[in-house]
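Hey, I was hoping to borrow your eyes for a little while. No rush at all, and the record is pasted right below:
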Amino acid sequence: MGRRLTSIDGGRGEQVPEEPRATVRQLHDRAELPEEEQPRLWHVVLSVAGKVIPLAELRAGLEQLAHDHSFFLTARYAADHAEIRYWEQARDLHDAAAIALRLWGEHKSTANLPPWEIVGLEVVDRPTYHKRIAEGFGDPPPHLGGVHPY
């Protein structure tokens, strides 16, 4: 049996909601910002540690975090620590680091993450990250994407 296409709300003749128009205006306004104020991509490595918890529970929490955070790249974990690597979009290093330092705490309850503390943070801009990889100094993640044990 073949698939049948059906119409959806928002098709021809219906009024476009205000929200997409506002989003387009925001993108247009952002494009008019000077280059130094444009958002940039930052590679973040966040290390957390704490009391031992069951691996299945930790993995489920990290997988939920990956689902919730759009630029999530990869996570490695053990029973008492984890490392999360992802891309963050921010105006400058200060903003990217501030967002990264809030990530674990803000998602602790929604992703059921353990009450661990942040024990390490590295934030580098995209050109620096790619230069490190090209020169053999930065280790690319052993598994690209997803949540994996050490």
Remarks:
- The first strand starts at residue 40 and ends at 49.
- Helices lie at 18-31, 55-68, 93-107, 126-135.
- Residues 1-25 have pLDDT under 50 and may be disordered.
- The chain is about 35% helix and 25% strand.
